[in-house]
Design goal:
The model has no long low-confidence stretch (mean pLDDT 89). β3 and β4 form a beta hairpin. The chain is α/β, with parallel strands linked by helices and 345 residues long.
Length: 345
């Protein structure tokens, strides 16, 4: 049900004078029917998980404060297919809150941008923490940088990505910006021949290839009949603790499959080799503990070979075309440290 809303356009202009957006031009401020503006189905400037609480907070703010005229209004551009309509650029969640409250009208700044990159970056720089807006999260900003790369608005180079992050995350600290960059590189490799992975995407790839992951995750065990973990380079404390717990409970081997963070074609094989040595060290630690607890000779314990942890190779990450496979990706299944397939898939 629509509610006729009394919005004071002149007050908005007076208390928050219109300004040109970065990389663009302000055309006019209007009081317009909301149904004349089309908003994207998916919010381009937020990770979806952040939308619902923000919309709820904005709905409450409108209910209590009405329109806050000291704050910039939503931003739209003229619809290129229909000059009588607009496309929403900034204010997606405010539009959802207005919809919740049944508002029939809204105040908009109509702008035009010099480039698509200017439009994308303005969507993020507008989300600094000011009432009634909600600030961009680290995940939101990482998503923005990935979008800029995917749309070929910026080069896929460290220098260009960091410069872009400096622009869209101007209100973040240097450590936060470094975290954003790390998250971007976990999704977008600097090398076209490499598949970047993080914890979530690595588990998803393992599930796709029916490789055990997540310890005793039910979905994984039902498919593989094995217990296992997907592990990036680094400490094995969690794998050791959770793996030993599973081994004691089920008396089954624990398969550990590796992947390389920020893979580089020049170093991926040496890093895989280093990762595999960590499994050897992990098992050696188990043998030493067992020898100390039982009083057995260490060599005798090693000979028994009863450590539960089994090196299970690596997730496929070299995706450059292979002429011997008709142009298919070089690694299409679980591989050993040298990139040789360990599966039939």
């Amino acid at each position: 049900m629509l509610h006729i809303i009394d919005l004071d356009l002149e007050r908005s202009k007076k208390e928050c004078p219109p300004q040109n957006p970065p990389g663009g031009k302000h055309l006019k401020r209007i009081r317009s029917r909301r149904d004349l503006t089309t908003w994207p189905e998916a919010q381009p400037y937020r990770v979806l998980v952040n939308n619902q609480p923000h919309v709820r907070d904005l709905t409450n703010s409108y209910s209590i404060n009405h329109m806050i005229y000291t704050e910039p209004p939503q931003v739209v551009v003229v619809d290129p297919d229909n000059p009588k309509r607009f496309i929403g650029i900034i204010g997606y969640q405010r539009n959802k809150a207005q919809e919740n409250l049944g508002w029939d009208m809204a105040i908009y700044d109509v702008v035009e941008y010099d480039t698509p990159l200017d439009q994308l970056e303005h969507g993020f720089t507008s989300n600094t923490v000011q009432n009634p807006r909600a600030g961009s999260t680290i995940e939101d900003l990482a998503k923005g940088a990935c979008l800029a790369i995917e749309r070929k608005l910026i080069p896929n180079t460290d220098k260009a990505i960091k410069a872009h992050i400096n622009r869209i995350a101007a209100d973040k600290t240097d450590p936060q910006k470094r975290n954003i960059f790390k998250k971007v590189r976990n999704k977008k490799s600097a090398h076209d021949s490499m598949r970047p992975l993080d914890g979530k995407s690595a588990n998803e790839l393992a599930a796709e290839h029916e490789i055990p992951y997540g310890g005793d995750v039910e979905e994984s065990y039902e498919v593989t009949g094995q217990y296992g973990f997907i592990k990036e380079p680094g400490g094995f404390k969690t794998v050791m603790h959770d793996g030993l717990r599973l081994w004691l409970e089920y008396d089954e081997p624990i398969y550990v499959t590796g992947y390389i963070t920020h893979p580089n074609p020049a170093t991926i094989k040496s890093r895989r080799n280093t990762w595999e040595k960590e499994i050897v060290r992990l098992n050696e630690m188990i043998y030493k503990i067992s020898a100390k607890v039982t009083g057995m000779d260490l060599d005798s314990v090693r000979e028994l070979g009863n450590s539960p942890f089994i090196s299970h190779g690596f997730l496929p990450q070299i995706i450059s075309p292979d002429v011997t496979k008709g142009g298919k990706e070089q690694e299409t299944s679980r591989v050993d440290k040298d990139g040789n397939s360990l599966d039939n898939s």
